[in-house]
Amino acid sequence: MASDPNVSLWVKAEPFSYGALHIAPHPRLNFTNIKKIVIYAKTKAETGFPRLSYSVWRHIACNKLHLSEELAWLYFSTCHLLSENTSAVERLEWDHRISEATDLIKDGMKNKVRVGTLKFVLFLYIQQLNKVSLKASLVAGDEWPTRSSSPDLDTSGRNTPRNSNKVLDDHSHMVFIQNNIHEILELLLEHDTYGSSQGDLSLTLEAVEALGFILAGSVDRCKTMLPIQDIAMLQTLQHRSGYSKLMKSFSLRLLQNWIKDSLVQNPFGISACIASGRRLSWPMGAGDDSKEVKESSNKRGRIATNAHVVPKEHMKGNKIIIMSQVGKQTISRSSSTLENSSVKIHRCHSAFLYLLAPLRSVTIEKCHNTTVILGPVETHVYLSHCESVTLIACTRMVTVSSCTLCNLYLLTPNPPVVLSGNDSIRLAPYHTYYPKLEEHMAEVGIGAAMNMWDHPLCIGPDHKEDAPVWELLPPSDFFTFNIPFEMEGATKEIPGGLPSKYHRAIAHRSRQIDSWQKTVKEAGLSREQRKQFQALVESQFHLWLSESGHKRELDNLAVPQAAKH
Fold first, then answer.
1. Could you tell me if 299 and 442 lie in one domain?
2. Last residue of a domain, one of 449, 474, 502
3. Which end of the chain, C or N, has fewer beta carbons within 10 A?
4. Cα 243 to Cα 168: distance, rounded to the nearest angstrom
5. Phi, psi (5° rounding) for residue 69?
């Protein structure tokens, strides 16, 4: 029977883009072992099912699967962040309490954290997204189908395997579900039905509700969104979804077929935004050099959003802004369009991007020689395949993969995750502010009580203790960053201040400047000598601005009212 054209299901982007670690999963994290987690959890009563406590998961992860405790908590806390509707106030309170707790009390606090058991097993299973299959690679030449290129986000990448860009590949997410839907549904089965014949296998309402973690749907051509269990239980669809009112359960076979028949590419994903997104005409500064102005106008970056088509009550995780191929330009924004959006920054070069609003998530991919200054990010910043990028961000989580010569100035309550393929990553404390920063931090639930910027978690096979891929920025190379825009707001200093050694470095440099100014003042120069000396200093300063590239940055900042719309 043909599927109803008004009914569509699609794969949610966030669990795959920010939940699935961009490395091959631990070999013990396979289907068989994940299926056993539900069975084991049910033997632990209220600490295991329907909501799994971290204490039970830690026992399974560390003692059964032999994962490290850091990786076990990373999986659990990431799933909690993406699946639980925790308020900003609750997140702030948690960070404050854990920042003041002893190690023993911290363990006790973590042990009490819970996530939906079935949602968590789905979260563990989708780690297979980045599994490398040698057999598939030999047969097909690639682990994933090739994506069609687009004018805004091309898929070619020098020195980059074709299957590396999972964050921007909503098509591969859909293919993963299509190819693995049977195993996914099997994970959600009641374990006492395993012995039944294939045709009798059924799923509970709770199991289908858990599918809502990775699947969303609509019955009116995506004008509104509904939970998948509500769609599957509609009177007109029960014969296809396999729902039995009498048994209050779903036939696995019929549900599986219905999902496969109804799957479409995410209507609020990257591909859809590229195809039908609304172009944003954000002011872009380009230096006053006539040749540079001409080049930048011919190769102007593309910025688009899908905010006009996303249902208002489902903006978080679905409202996207794409910034692609912005080059030799400065963009500064603090607007309602930007607020709570998932920002994708792709192939930008020699640019300065000021996105001064509370954000949902940010992906920075294949950029080089670019500085990105972000407002507070509620969930995740993901930096991938970048070179010589400076990131300045307050964010709950940050991940770095396949990057080189990048500087990260961070305020984050979680350890930065450093995956494979990185080299020369420098970590430093958050070193700037703007007037609305603390207001925006409160909106997304990030405080200054705890900052784990200097405790990275390295995951992957290429990390060696004698040759680390990261280092802490030396205090001698540390300078505070000034955001050169006027805004209303109460923040007057860097939240939480600076670590002592960096504070001392700034104070020492300030004393040196004061000493130099005093020396010049006491030199007894005549009026004409002071004039000549000032002209020499200004000449050398302008030469340095030009040679360092900062002249273009200053010229770009002259775009009127760039940060006010």
1. yes
2. 502
3. N
4. 34
5. -65, -35
What average pLDDT is seen over the chain? 86
Query: Percent of the chain having pLDDT more than 70?
Result: 85
Contact predicate 177/214, CB 8 Å: yes
Residue 156 lies in a domain: no
Number of domains in the chain: 3
The per-residue pLDDT for range 59-68, each reduced to its tens digit, is 999 999 999 9
196/291 same-domain check: no
User: 364: which 2 tokens?
Assistant: 């920075």
Q: How far is CA 365 from the centre of its chain?
A: 11
pLDDT at 215: 97
Nearest to 307 by CA among 299, 295, 297, 315: 315
Select the more confidently predicted residue: 513 or 77: 77
Does 564 reside within a domain? no
Calpha distance 323→330 (Å, rounded): 12
Q: How far apart are CA 351 and CA 330, in angstroms?
A: 6
**What one-character-per-residue DSSP string does 104-148 give?**
HHHHHHHHT-EEEHHHHHHHHHGGGGG---HHHHHHHSSSSPPPP
Q: Which residues fall within 8 angstroms of residue 227, CB to CB, at 6 or more apart?
A: 209, 212, 216, 217
Are 284 and 188 members of one domain?
A: no
| Domain enclosing residue 321, as ranges | 270-502
Over residues 191-205, the pLDDT tens digits come to 654 444 445 689 999
Same domain, 304 and 442: yes
330: helix, strand or coil: strand
The DSSP 8-state label assigned to residue 561 in this structure reads T
**CA–CA separation, 406 and 73 (whole Å):** 26
The residue type found at 479 is: F
For residue 162, name the pLDDT band (cuts at 50, 70, 90): very low
Spatial separation of the C-alpha atoms in residues 145 and 90, rounded to whole Å: 41
Q: Would you say residue 161 has pLDDT above 90?
A: no
**CATH number for position 367:** 2.160.20.70
Q: Are residues 323 and 414 in the same domain?
A: yes
Query: Cα–Cα distance between 564 and 326 in angstroms, integer?
Result: 20
CA distance 319 to 81: 18
pTM, entire model: 0.88
DSSP category for residue 349: B
Q: 433 and 289 share a domain?
A: yes
Would residue 298 count as lying in a domain?
yes
User: For residue range 286-299, what is the model confidence (pLDDT) as tens digits?
Assistant: 544 444 444 544 45
Burial of 118 (0-12, 13-18, 19+ CB in 10 A): buried
Q: Give residues with Cβ within 8 angstroms of 369, minimum separation 6.
A: 349, 350, 387, 388, 389
Evaluate if residue 154 carries a pLDDT over 50: no
Residues 296 and 213 in one domain: no
Task: Name the domain boundary from 212, 246, 267.
Answer: 267
In this prediction, residue 436 has a pLDDT band, given cuts at 50, 70 and 90, of very high
> Is 333 in the same domain as 250?
no
Kindly state the average pLDDT of the residues 62-80: 96
Segment 105-140, tens digit of pLDDT: 999 999 999 999 999 999 999 999 887 554 444 444
- With respect to residue 560, please indicate whether it lies within any of the assigned structural domains: no
